[in-house]
Amino acid sequence: DVVMTQSPLSLPVTLGQPASISCRSSQSLVHSDGNTYLNWFQQRPGQSPRRLIYKVSNRDSGVPDRFSGSGSGTDFTLKISRVEAEDVGVYYCMQGTHWPLTFGGGTKVEIK
Amino acid sequence: QVQLVESGGGLVKPGGSLRLSCATSGFTFSDYYMSWIRQAPGKGLEWVSYISSSSSTIYYADSVKGRFTISRDNAKNSLYLQMNSLRAEDTAVYHCATYSSSSSFDHWGQGTLVTVSS
Fold first, then answer.
1. What's the CA angle centered on B72, arms B1 and B116, to 5 degrees?
2. Residue B27: which residues within 8 A CB-CB, separation 6 or more?
């Protein structure tokens, strides 16, 4: 199975400051069709997960442009350009290239 | 708008069974692949099972293979998860989700809590 490793586990951030979350996979996430199926989800306290980013860098409809995804192969990053109070929660990366589908362990973003 | 509403969770003894349902609306259910994902209390997300739009392709996580059965009724716009031989480690909130062509989960339900305890 592909192991997804996120860091840091916890990320205290000052409002208005940037934040960055790393996600590394134990195998390349480049599919035989040429796509890289790396996704990012946000889970606010008490809510269901919500997808933010699909295929590395594509933002979902309604996702603020302060969220961006980048990376390739086995190394990926989610960046928040200026953290707002509503961004508090746990962020998960997830790979959709190989079965079984696997998630990272999560990064908890909190306000300092 | 897309709505996914899970039901059927509850308290069950180890070795027992439960059947979860996911009622959907706001989209053409028969066109969509679907999945179940679970989250143990205070823990991360774990993919459980996948079913294609016609039920021709089904996958399970190793942790539930042989015990859980995913199914769907396209006429009723509903997804199901039959869970047998339940264990304490199956305790979790179970979410149904649409599985998109980008190999991802684009819409999620609010989840239903399954507690396995004697």
1. 95
2. B2, B98, B107
Identify from A7, A51, A95 which residue to disrupt to test chain B contact, counting B C-beta atoms within 10 A and taking the largest count: A51
Q: Are A93 and A39 in contact (CB under 8 A)?
A: yes
Q: Do A96 and B45 touch (CB under 8 A)?
A: no
Based on its alpha-carbon atoms, the radius of gyration of chain B, rounded to whole angstroms, reads: 13
What are the pLDDT digits (tens) for B28-43?
999 999 999 999 999 9
Confidence of residue B101 (pLDDT cuts 50, 70, 90): confident
Q: Does A37 touch chain B (CB under 8 A)?
A: yes
Option in B47, B103, B104 nearest A100 (CB) = B47
User: Going residue by residue through chain A (112 aa), what tens digit of pLDDT does each one get?
Assistant: 999 999 999 999 999 999 999 999 999 999 999 999 999 999 999 999 999 999 999 999 999 999 999 999 999 999 999 999 999 999 999 999 999 999 999 999 999 9
Using CA atoms, how far residue B69 sits from A88, B6, B36, B58, in Å, is 35, 16, 11, 9
Task: Find, among A105, A108, A110, the residue nearest to A6 by Cα.
Answer: A105
The residue among B72, B89, B74, B77 whose CA lies nearest residue B19 is B72
